[in-house]
């Protein structure tokens, strides 16, 4: 029985068990969709983006498609930006549940839904027996139309648009009728009458966004006796995240917004009771709607071949809206009157098999069934398919020519790749320490178009090429590329910067940003209450340069980021930065220009700056600086009351690097006026046309008789 106590045998057995059960889990997760045996109570009527379902008997979430059945004890959730419409039927009775993004429900039966989180809208028909529960609170839908949301404090908000709904809770029974709302928190119910009626934007509508931001106009009907209104716009149905407010004496107001999903409502004071009343909240989306762009093939690219059929041409374009429809068109003429090929694709990819050589033009058409979204066409791209006497040599793809790579990253996962052709039967990768390839340090043949050489790499410069062997006889060599292996670059913490003072976010979530020396690496984000990281509040691994994490409350924090190898080795660690959050200080987020944006001023009348604030600010200090390669020079510095500013003196700007800084003035708990530390964003100005100072046309001299 010695093997039971021998560490070598025990560790080996545990490792084998780990691989065994991991393999079982992998096979289970990839065994196809799980159908379940529970009773079918409804179906997924429609969806946007990814909708996930977990069966009662399963532990793995799976994606739902339209018309898929919904079963008893299913758990349904929507991810960010997603929406789902579920249809439940029971004889002549039916109910429709619309789940907003980041929402979750548990289906208990055809007439019972357990509401877990987020927000939903429900419509009942016939006798309308649907019952929605949340904890000890039960809501009978009836033949009505209602909206239900749950905030972070587990409080419920109910709005009835049509009919009535009955609420049963620890405090008794209440009936909420048309144009009424109810707040349910801690067993208490407060019912309000909604005399305010909003008109535009419509609920569940989508608005096209042609630039980075847009000024959205909100309208509502006048309410008797109400003189002043307050418009509220937020990113969540509880009106806590990204809340923006605007006061108006009329029945309309405008707010500058970027793309995303928003909820809005109007607040007014009832002249009889003196209490504030809320309109029913409505949800809308601002969807980026700018013309698509073909990224492949490149302009005037040549696809050549020497024998056999013409090579395939692969097309790729950027898709900005998942709900949009895209059609690729390839024509023989620049006016697209003679279409040689067309294909519908929402994935942003397509492949064409040309029948002969020639010059062609490609474009992508983007259109939508939604009202107000005009059809847009990409700029046409010309390319040619050409038959040549000899095949083109392979094109070197990775590493890029002149690329500088951290040596520790290169050793762990980098590989060489090049273009392939049916005319070649094999390839030989050669790496040399000199451009003439007199000192070849690595050479190996392969049938594929990529390779990871087994070589003891050192810091320094290298040259590489690929020799391709034809299917018949002979070979051809590619061009030569050079790359440099250097020590790993440090990690620069971008936000929050050391010494920054911020308003504590309403939802506690803060976005940390840093530069990535390895774009494909894993990064460990650590946040603590002390500089020695003994009291960590965040310890997570992220595959990007952005991490959204939740802070426990206002106070002093310290953070750092480490680059982790696939084996878990720490490759490089950033310096430690400290920052502070407080309840009294506003939380300011610069929106545009974004960090490292390229702003083209051609045909623009002004350079717009936008930001948003959580909390109360007295004013903002905006400063624009220009880089002269040695230092930053101030272009202007202004104190501003609103959350946007248009700089119109564009003749003062030229192509180059710029930085804008933003800080907020606020009053602390003692009433003293303070200023937050400035937040900065770097961007480049591109001037396609020359901007000149205004020319004075009035004569300099006047003659009087």
UniProtKB/TrEMBL annotation:
The keyword Heme does not apply. Keywords: Membrane, Transmembrane, Transmembrane helix. This is Transcriptional regulator. Residues 74-165 form the FecR protein domain. InterPro entries: FecR (IPR006860), Ig-like_fold (IPR013783). Pfam families: FecR. It comes from Leptospira semungkisensis. Gene3D superfamilies: Immunoglobulins. The chain crosses the membrane at residues 9-29.
């Amino acid at each position: 029985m010695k093997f039971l106590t021998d560490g070598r045998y025990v560790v080996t057995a545990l490792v084998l068990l780990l691989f065994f059960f991991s393999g079982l889990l992998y096979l289970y997760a990839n065994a196809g969709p799980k159908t379940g045996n529970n009773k079918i109570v409804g179906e997924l009527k429609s969806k946007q983006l990814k909708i996930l379902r977990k069966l009662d008997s399963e532990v793995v979430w799976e994606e739902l498609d339209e018309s898929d059945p919904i079963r008893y004890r299913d758990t349904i959730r929507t991810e960010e930006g997603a929406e789902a419409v579920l249809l439940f039927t029971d004889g002549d009775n039916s109910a429709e549940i619309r789940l907003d993004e980041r929402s979750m429900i548990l289906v208990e039966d055809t007439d019972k839904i357990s509401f877990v989180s987020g927000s939903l809208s429900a419509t009942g028909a016939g006798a309308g027996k649907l019952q929605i529960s949340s904890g000890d609170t039960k809501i009978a839908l009836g033949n009505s139309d209602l909206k239900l949301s749950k905030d972070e404090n587990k409080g419920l908000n109910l709005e009835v648009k049509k009919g009535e709904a009955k609420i049963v809770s620890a405090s008794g029974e209440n009936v909420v009728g048309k144009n009424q709302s109810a707040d349910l928190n801690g067993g208490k119910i407060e019912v309000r009458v909604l005399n305010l009626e909003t008109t535009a934007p419509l609920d569940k509508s989508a608005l096209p966004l042609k630039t980075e931001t847009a000024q959205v106009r909100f309208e509502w009907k006048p309410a008797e006796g109400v003189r002043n209104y307050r418009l509220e716009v937020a990113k969540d149905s509880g009106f806590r995240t990204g809340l923006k407010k605007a006061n108006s004496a009329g029945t309309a107001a405008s707010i500058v917004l970027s793309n995303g999903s928003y909820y809005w409502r109007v607040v007014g004071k009832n002249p009889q009771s003196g209490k504030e009343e809320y309109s029913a909240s409505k949800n809308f989306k601002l969807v980026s709607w700018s013309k698509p762009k073909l990224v492949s093939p490149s302009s005037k690219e040549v696809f050549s071949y020497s024998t056999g059929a013409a090579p395939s041409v692969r097309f790729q374009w950027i898709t900005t809206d998942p709900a949009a429809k895209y059609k690729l068109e390839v024509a023989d003429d620049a006016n697209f009157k003679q279409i040689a090929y067309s294909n519908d694709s929402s994935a942003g990819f397509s492949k064409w098999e040309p029948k002969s050589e020639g010059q062609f033009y490609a474009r992508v058409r983007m259109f939508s069934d939604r009202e107000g979204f005009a059809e847009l066409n990409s700029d046409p791209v010309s390319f040619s398919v050409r038959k040549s006497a000899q095949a083109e040599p392979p094109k070197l793809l990775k590493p890029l020519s002149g690329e500088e790579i951290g040596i520790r990253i290169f050793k762990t996962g980098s590989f060489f790749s090049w273009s392939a052709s049916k005319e070649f039967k094999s390839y030989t990768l050669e790496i040399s320490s000199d451009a003439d390839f007199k000192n070849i340090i690595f050479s190996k043949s392969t049938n594929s178009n990529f390779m990871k050489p087994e070589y003891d790499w050192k810091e320094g410069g290298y040259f590489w090429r690929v020799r391709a062997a034809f299917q018949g006889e002979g070979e051809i060599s590619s061009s030569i590329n050079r790359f440099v292996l250097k020590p790993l670059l440090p990690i620069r913490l971008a936000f929050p910067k050391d010494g920054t003072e911020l308003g504590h976010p309403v939802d506690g979530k803060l976005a940390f940003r840093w530069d990535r020396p390895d774009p494909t690496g894993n990064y460990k984000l650590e946040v603590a209450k002390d500089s020695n990281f003994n009291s960590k509040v965040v310890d997570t691994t992220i595959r990007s340069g952005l991490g959204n994490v939740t802070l426990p409350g206002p106070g002093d924090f310290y953070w750092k980021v480490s680059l982790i190898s696939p084996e878990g080795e720490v490759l490089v660690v950033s310096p430690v930065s400290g920052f502070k959050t407080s309840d009294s200080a506003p939380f300011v987020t610069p929106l545009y220009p974004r960090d490292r944006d390229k702003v083209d001023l051609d045909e623009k009348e002004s350079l717009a700056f936008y930001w948003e604030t959580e909390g109360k600010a007295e004013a903002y200090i905006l400063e624009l600086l220009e880089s002269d390669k040695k230092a930053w020079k101030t272009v202007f510095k202004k104190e501003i009351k609103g959350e946007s500013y248009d700089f119109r003196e564009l003749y003062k700007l030229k192509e180059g690097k710029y930085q804008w800084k933003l800080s907020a003035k606020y009053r602390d708990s003692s009433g003293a006026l303070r200023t937050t530390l400035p937040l900065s964003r770097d961007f480049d100005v591109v001037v396609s046309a020359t901007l000149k100072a205004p020319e004075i046309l009035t004569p300099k001299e006047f003659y009087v008789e």
